[in-house]
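Quick log. Single chain, no ligands specified.
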Amino acid sequence: MMKNFTRGLLNLFLLASGMTIAAGNETGEISQRPNIIMIFTDDQGYNDLGSFGSPKIKTPNLDRMAQEGMRFTDFYSACSVCSPSRAALMTGCYPPRVGVTRVLFPRDKVGLDPKEITVAENLKSAGYQTACIGKWHMGHLPEFLPTRQGFDFYYGIPYSNDMTIDTKAKIAVDANFQEGMTLAKIRNEKPKKNWVPLMRNEEIIEYPADQTTLTQRYTDKALQFMTHAHESNDPFFLYLPHTMPHIPLFASERFKGTSERGLYGDTIEEIDWSVGQILKKLKELGIDENTLVVYTSDNGPWNLKNGHGGSAYPLRGFKFSTWEGGMRVPCIMRWPGQIPAGSVNNQVCGTIDMMPTFSALAGVDLPSDHVIDGQNILPLMKHGASVCSPHEAYYYYKGTNLVAVRQGDWKLHQKGNNKEPKWELYNLETDIGESESVYQQNMAIAEKMIALMNEFDAKMKENSP
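-> predicted structure:
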């Protein structure tokens, strides 16, 4: 009786702030299934953390997270642009398998098919409270929003911050209009680039969003969610996809102009502050040792000469490319008592592995009627590089085209079109920057990898929408 009364008061409070808690564990016992926090930055380069070698960007909280956890040096996004990489994270599939192979815009009427099973849906079936706080970018129409994809609560921008607004979108009755905007202007005027909406659940609550405060507001909402979910005695899944450092760059007054790396560095250092707040809250709530925190990026950095792009050093390439710099991203995982402190893992894994790994931690099966490309990498997390990657090979898609494959230290990369491919082969152990092809000297290896690519891609096309 008392628990139901308390939950009722909690739900009233959360409803007032736009958040909800679903019915969960009714036994009154705190579940020992771990809480899971997935922090996902936007266009952050491989080199753009102190623990990954950045000479000017200061990230003390993330560096401490690495000291207390594990750095993954060969961790991959599933695409070098936003929407496909996020769809892969949510579903555990290479993007073509779920039909999201390009960047989505406010004019688009498509998104991640609600029939796909997301990691949030799988965890929710195991009693997890779920929240998406930040950038979504897998479809902005109601049927594609986080609230229809397994999340109890959503707060954030629906796509990239350099886009506009869907003039037909649902606007909350109490929406905060800025820069002289009105509902009539939204409906009748041409949308302005870089003016994007801020949403709560399925309504726009602010337009244009004040992007200078997004990182701080995302953090505040995340801390609220963590607190309320913990008080409900349920495990939680927090997906925190930051808007930054996607261009245009914004930082709050507290951080603007403070980094040696300019405005780009300011945005990363503010995200680092956010990570510090989350780690602090875990300790305050007494759930630090029962929470897995994962930090990574959706793809590599923009190649910009004005200081607004990041660094993929020592990798070749940037965002939009299937070179390592476009898809190999920094990754840190921390789980005290489970992940060895101060460890480094050089085994191949990536965002497609989060769905099966998180599901295994929650004790819930993967959907039997879906092909899942990712693998459970809990052994890698617990035992480091002493355990081999569960991937025989890792595949690099650009749109619907399979462009490259990595097998062990070897990476085969296709140049030219599919009708007249030109192949390049690199040994990433000795040539991490993909600077000199050794295809001619190792044609037997290359031919086996070409056959592997063709076989995998043929099966992919058979099972793709």
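Residues 37 and 238 are 5 Å apart (CA to CA).
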